[in-house]
Specification:
The chain is α+β, with helices and mostly antiparallel strands. It has five domains: about 5-70, Helix hairpin bin (Helix Hairpins), CATH 1.10.287.610; about 135-340, DNA ligase/mRNA capping enzyme (D-amino Acid Aminotransferase, Chain A, domain 1, 2-Layer Sandwich), CATH 3.30.470.30; about 345-445, Nucleic acid-binding proteins (OB fold (Dihydrolipoamide Acetyltransferase, E2P)); about 470-550, Orthogonal Bundle (DNA polymerase, domain 1), CATH 1.10.150.20; about 655-739, 3-Layer(aba) Sandwich (Rossmann fold), CATH 3.40.50. The protein has 28 helices and 22 strands. Strands 12, 13, 14, 15, 16, 17 and 18 form a seven-stranded antiparallel β-sheet that branches. A five-stranded mixed β-sheet has the order 2-11-10-3-9. The chain has a four-stranded antiparallel β-sheet with strand order 5-4-7-8. A hairpin with a 4-residue loop joins strand 12 (about 345-355) and strand 13. Helix 14 runs antiparallel to helix 15 (about 495-500). The two termini are about 55 Å apart.
Length: about 750
């Protein structure tokens, strides 16, 4: 800009660039019809950034450049929704048994979607008409959110919360490029407009994000919905901006200064405003049309770029909606038909066995390829030999499969035998022939019981007990280096697998001896297309592994070992009872505890009362821990740690109240805490503060719990604490107790 350029010209240029960028954001994120290349978009973006840096007084807080996220916020404020964000009633497919019973009684066989028929009849009765125009659209598996625009600008965004009050997440929502911050003034938006919809992660973007996190050595997410919910709870919008969040509008809340008389008019308004609406969309005026649309959506939904689990049916006219009214929790004019998991028949061609992180040997069904819920399934878990025997599964059978949660393929039942009783029976004993299928190491059979008294069933599982089994090393490494364990950065699934494949490690502890230069030259690709780990990533691994060797407390190391049944809470309790790993291996406390009965421990606990053993360490954990450290694998761990000069020490050792009191009158000595809800820091950090102050942190509420530290939410733990009259405190109160 020249010296003669007026301030109004500068502002006009900045406004023009901002409008142009928003136009292209809409084309890219909403319409999926980009007009310019990424390079051209970046040039416009940088030009606006430069002007805003040079003339900060003219910078618009809603500028497209601000979507990368601002400074971390202190915590979420709460706001009352202008209109309640109610739930929606679910409708389900009825069983074949119910259809048979109805047919026998009435002479007519109802459709599987009978609950839709009943719902539509209620609409007809409530409105006194045979024709009730409705829309049918996908039920998005995301996180519900309310966007409130005032004067054409996004005033705030909030979560559903309890339906009446939600968390204000405006800073995080501003980073989602498909959500306009300023509405087109020519589009005719009402003065106040509340748009409701779902924030979600597109499927492909979620997979790509998980791959990138895995390669960077970061923990991956279980599914798109959970990762979306977790992302929106982050207090740093800059981190939120790195996640591939998207938004689709599906509902209308408060409207002031304008009229939106129907669902159709609302969709037209969304199109004018550049807000992505829920599609595909059907309009139906008869019951048969509704059923046809619901069935057609079930066929099409697997091709959508986000998860769905149902079809939402809504009355179109808002006046009719008001006439039908609401129950205390849901509108009477809308319902969601939940699709049952898609089930398909296929042939079980073979059964193989895979080795898990803990050495567990799991039988796997090798299937004739079949399309289920949008993807081709070739393998499905059979869990264990007991599962196979109970369902009489044999090679050659025709089986029914589905995806649990539409994600994990599983065998439901045998549909028919290839030839009655002549299928090839599967036996883990015969298949394994006494050796692990991967390393040929020794295996052992374990039996557990489940079910209520009188209805117990024995479950047989097999384990490879060779600590150096290659199949276990890569998967063990993922837990070993995870944030909850030793927090060694730069090692994900690919790096872990290549370390094993290239012969650099046989056990996770070998990681501490690999030279930095050797790590840098680790080939993550193929011999034909090499891709090296690189100096930067190697330096990160070395730096964080050295920190783990010197600084990580005993509890983290116990959890890193991946001992069966020993989770985070049990690791902390074992650390409270012992000074180091050698003490655990030779523990008289665990030896005593191992002999106790599972279940009611009232009498047996008298022997251990001076130690105040928490519920996380029962007979099963004690046995598993001692078995590990007394096994060849466990002894190898202790020897290797000694060779490496690593001797993790407890940072919360306090086995007896008398010793704890004598150790300096710590403020929380003898007190037991449980942590729940959304807090300002990770739970392990808060737990570390409590244990450092002499307290004890467990994972479940009981009458022996002294305090529940609760953030937002808390769910069942908060309810149980109230029932048992356990005091519930917040973070501020905890800080006060810590002094």
């Amino acid at each position: 800009m020249s010296d003669s350029t007026s301030s109004s010209d500068i502002q006009a240029e900045m406004a023009k660039l901002a409008a142009e960028l928003e136009h292209h954001n809409r084309l890219y994120y909403v319409d999926a019809e980009p007009e310019i290349s990424d390079k051209e978009y970046d040039e416009l973006f940088r030009k606006l950034e430069e002007l805003e840096a040079e003339y900060p007084l003219f910078a618009d807080p809603d500028s497209p450049t601000k979507r990368v996220g601002g400074e971390p916020i202190e915590g979420f404020e709460q706001i009352r929704h202008p209109l309640p964000m109610l739930s929606i009633d679910d409708l389900f497919e009825i069983s074949e048994e119910d259809r048979d019973a109805i047919e026998k009684k009435t002479g007519e066989r109802p459709p599987k979607e009978k609950e839709i028929v009943d719902f539509y009849k209620r609409l007809q009765k409530g409105l006194g008409t045979e024709t009730v125009p409705v829309t049918i659209e996908p039920k998005i598996d995301g996180v519900a959110v309310s966007l409130v625009y005032r004067g054409g600008r996004l005033e705030y965004a909030a979560t559903r919360g309890d339906g009446n009050t939600g968390d204000v997440i405006t800073s995080n929502v501003r980073t989602i490029k498909s959500i306009p911050l300023i509405l087109d003034p020519e589009a005719g938006a009402p003065e106040v407009l509340e748009v409701r919809g779902e924030i979600f992660m597109p499927n492909e973007a979620f997979v790509k994000m998980n791959e990138e996190r895995d390669e960077a050595g970061l923990p991956t997410f279980a599914n798109p919905r959970n990762s979306t919910a977790g992302t929106l709870k982050l207090l740093d919008p800059r981190e939120v901006a790195k996640r591939p969040l998207d938004f689709i509008a599906h509902g209308l809340g408060l409207v002031e200064g304008g009229e939106v008389g129907s669902v159709t008019a609302f969709h037209d308004l969304l199109d004018r405003l550049g807000i992505r609406k829920n599609e595909p969309l059907w309009r139906a005026e008869t019951l048969n049309d509704v059923l046809d649309a619901v069935r057609e959506l079930d066929e099409k939904r697997h091709a959508l770029d986000y998860g769905t689990d149902g079809a939402v049916i809504k009355v179109i006219d808002r006046a009719d909606q008001e006439r039908l009214g609401y129950t205390s929790r849901a509108p009477r004019w809308a319902a969601a038909f939940k699709y049952p998991p898609e089930q398909k028949e296929t042939t079980l061609e073979d059964i193989t066995v895979q080795v898990g992180r803990t050495g567990k040997l799991t039988p796997v069904a090798e299937l004739a390829p079949v399309l289920v819920s949008g993807t081709t399934v070739r393998r499905a878990t059979l869990h264990n030999e007991s599962f196979i025997n109970e369902r009489d599964v044999a090679i050659g059978d025709t089986v029914l499969i589905q995806k649990a949660g539409e994600i994990i393929p599983e065998v439901i039942r045998v549909v028919k035998k290839k030839v009655p009783d002549s299928g090839v029976r599967f036996s883990m004993h015969d298949y394994l022939d006494g050796a692990c299928p991967v390393c040929s190491g020794p295996i052992e059979q374990r039996e557990t019981t489940s079910g209520s008294k009188g209805e117990e069933r024995t479950i047989i599982t097999h384990f490879c007990v060779n600590f150096e089994c290659p199949a276990q090393v890569a998967s063990r490494m993922r837990q070993f280096v995870s944030r909850k364990a030793l927090d060694i950065e730069g090692i994900g699934s690919i790096v872990a697998e290549k370390l094993v494949e290239r012969g650099l490690i046989k056990t996770p502890l070998d990681l501490f001896e690999i030279p930095e230069e050797r790590l840098a030259n680790l080939n993550l690709g193929t011999d034909e297309n090499p891709r090296m780990l690189g100096e930067k990533n190697a330096a990160k691994i070395v730096q964080t592994r050295e920190r783990a060797a010197k600084e990580k407390p005993l509890a983290k190391w116990i959890f890193a070992m991946g001992i069966t049944q020993v989770g985070e809470s049990a690791s902390r309790e074992l650390s409270r009872l012992h000074r180091n790993l050698r003490e655990i291996a030779e523990s008289e406390i665990l030896a005593e505890l191992r002999t106790l009965k599972t279940g009611d421990r009232k009498e047996d606990n008298e022997k251990l009362a001076p130690y105040e053993i928490a519920s996380e360490v029962g007979p099963a954990v004690a046995k598993s821990t001692l078995d590990f450290f007394q096994s060849e694998a466990g002894q190898h761990v202790l020897e290797r740690l000694a060779e490496l000069g690593i001797d993790p020490q407890s940072d919360n050792y306090a086995p007896k109240p008398a010793e704890a009191a004598a150790s300096g009158d710590k403020p929380l000595a003898g007190k037991t805490f449980v942590i729940t809800g959304s807090l300002s820091a990770p739970r392990d950090e808060i737990a570390a503060k409590i244990t450092a102050a002499g307290g004890k942190v467990t994972g479940s509420i009981s009458k022996n719990t002294d305090y529940l530290v609760a953030g937002e939410g808390g769910g069942s733990k908060r309810d149980k604490a109230e029932k048992l009259e356990v005091p519930i405190i917040n973070e501020e109160e905890l800080e006060s107790m810590l002094g």
